UniProtKB/TrEMBL annotation:
AB hydrolase-1 domain span: 46-202
Protein name: Alpha/beta fold hydrolase
Keyword entries, A-Z: Acyltransferase, Amino-acid biosynthesis, Hydrolase, Methionine biosynthesis, Transferase
Lineage, uppermost ranks: Bacteria, Pseudomonadati, Pseudomonadota, Betaproteobacteria, Burkholderiales
InterPro entries: AB_hydrolase_1 (IPR000073), AB_hydrolase_fold (IPR029058), HAT_MetX-like (IPR008220)
Keyword NAD applies: no
Pfam families assigned to the protein according to its UniProt record, in alphabetical order: Abhydrolase_1 (PF00561)
Organism encoding this protein: Ramlibacter henchirensis
GO biological process: one example: methionine biosynthetic process
GO terms of molecular function: homoserine O-acetyltransferase activity; hydrolase activity
């Protein structure tokens, strides 16, 4: 299936971060599908916002495993019915980011800043209320913050692969490993480099160890030659990324902790996690305990199976689209 995404951006003369620092000439990029439709009151009546994960961009939703399930004719988010907006988060994709020039001098931003930027983008596009706000991984955490920060904006919330609590434990440690690898790269030079540092990328295969399922890893890495091949491929992929962008992206979760405000959420919310996701361990019952604070909330734990792939199950919409379809019917 070929899905035609339109690309655009808005510009902000200035953008004040929650630290009080100000970014000038901010660009917020996005993709869209479908066309806006106005309701009887003249306001947009069919808007959907979907957010991507850390270090990614709205291009994530062009993957066949997502787009075919979500955006095909008759799909759960059929563009013939919905106006779908896919923002590039602040610091990511085509939006303003450190590699545009400031590099290590780019101010530290947080999830609250990213959500504020998404909100300004939505309002600039004429969206006053959305049928759905949802996202994957980091985008799921943004979804929780949307529910607590703008409780009247979305009718429905759909976070995929997240906990609505401050990041801690294994999920925090692997992020810190990446942060330290960048800061201690000999080429980093306090972020004032002229040639892109490379040593930091050698730690990035840790992501596959933590985020992919054991059956997938065993299939892809049956011997030492395969291990070397996979290692090299992950390193090459990350060498194409700017470490200043990656540093700020992995630091940005520092202000994330919606737990105390979950009672403010008014939308219907369905949160989906995966039983075999070791980054979000089901046995800790974090999601199940937290969801009790959401008046119209429900937690779904997708059982582990031969086809699930731990944290990366999130990019296979077939695992969670039935729950989204049910939510959209309410």
């Amino acid at each position: 299936m070929t899905t035609r995404f339109k690309q655009g951006h808005i510009s902000l003369d200035s953008f004040e971060l929650f630290t009080g620092e100000v970014l000038d000439d901010v660009r917020l990029a996005y993709r869209t599908l479908g066309e806006p439709r106005l309701g009887d009151d003249g306001s947009m009546a069919n808007a959907v916002l979907l957010f991507h994960g850390t270090g990614s961009s709205s291009a994530l939703y062009e993957r066949e495993t997502l787009s075919s399930e979500l955006f095909s004719p008759g799909g759960v988010l059929d563009p013939a019915r919905y106006f779908i907006v896919l923002p590039d988060a602040l610091g990511h994709g085509g939006s303003t980011k450190p590699s545009d020039g400031l590099r290590g001098r780019f101010p530290m931003y947080g999830y609250r800043d990213m959500v504020k930027a998404q909100y300004l983008l939505a309002r600039r596009l004429g969206i006053q209320r959305a049928e759905l706000v949802g996202g994957i991984s980091m985008g799921a955490m943004h979804t929780w913050l949307w529910g607590t920060t703008y409780p009247d904006f979305a009718k429905r919330l759909f976070p995929i692969s997240s906990f609505p609590v401050a990041i801690a434990g294994r999920n925090l440690l692997w992020r810190q490993i990446i942060i330290e690898a960048i800061l201690n790269d000999p080429g980093w030079q306090d972020g004032n480099y002229t040639e892109r540092p490379t040593h930091w990328a050698n730690v990035m295969p840790i992501m596959k160890v933590l985020l992919e399922g054991p059956a997938v890893l065993l299939r892809d890495i049956p011997d030492r030659n395969a291990a070397k091949s996979v290692f090299d491929a992950v390193v090459r992929e990350n060498l194409a990324k700017d470490p200043a962008d990656m540093l700020r992206a992995y630091q940005s979760s520092h202000d994330y902790d919606p737990l105390a405000d979950l009672g403010k959420i008014r939308a219907r919310l369905v949160a989906v996690n995966f039983e075999d996701d070791v980054v979000l361990p089901a046995e800790l019952n974090v999601l199940q305990g937290s969801i009790q604070k959401v008046a119209h909330g429900m937690a779904v734990l997708v059982p582990a199976g031969p086809d699930t792939n731990a944290h990366y199950s999130q990019i296979e919409a077939r695992f969670w689209a039935p729950y989204l379809r049910r939510l959209m019917a309410e």
